[in-house]
Amino acid sequence: MGNVNSRTRDEGFYARPAKAADGSMNLMEWEVGIPGKQHTAWENGIYKLQMIFPEDYPTKPPKCKFTPPLFHPNVYPSGTVCLSILDEEKSWKPAITIKQILLGIQDLLTDPNVNDPAQSDAYTMFKNDKVAYEYAQPALLAKRFVICLFLAEEECANRPGKTNRSDAAPT
Predict the structure, then answer these.
(1) In the list 50, 79, 129, 132, which could disulfide-bond 69, CB 3.0-4.6 Å?
(2) Angle at 145 between CA 142 and CA 150, to 5 degrees
(3) 39-95 pLDDT, tens per residue?
(4) Which domain holds residue 39?
(5) What is the domain count for the chain?
(6) What's the CATH number where 68 sits?
(7) In the chain, helix, strand, coil percent, each to 5?
(8) Active-site residue 82, yes or no?
(9) What is the pLDDT of residues 156-171, one digit of tens each?
């Protein structure tokens, strides 16, 4: 992710300055996409977030906020990410790069930090029923939605009394 305007298609990440109302680039706010890791409930998703840089960056960390908010133990209902490297009172260091932040958030998606929960419902589900938690994730919800649409169409086509267009008698 060398250049802020470049997309690294092989990794699936992107980070670019947001456009201001006048069309200029706002270097204090970035639009970011984080791909879900392969072989996880987050796979096949690109999770969008905003990175908002304070005036005194890099002394203070950027605020990272998923848009829309995610159902995750370490994401506040507002979408703000709860991650130690983004907390100046915990692990933030001015030398931390944007790439390190994005990789840290990607890791956090698949490996929540149960010692620092931000969303009680997601935390409780993750702790008590990991299978249900994984099925509540956006990538799996989208897959199930597509499968349900396909199955509903197939079921509808195979109902007794339903005439397929190719089987219909000419009029």
Answers:
(1) 79
(2) 130
(3) 988 888 899 999 999 999 999 999 999 999 999 999 999 999 999 999 999 999 999
(4) 14-158
(5) 1
(6) 3.10.110.10
(7) 30, 20, 50
(8) yes
(9) 444 444 344 334 344 4
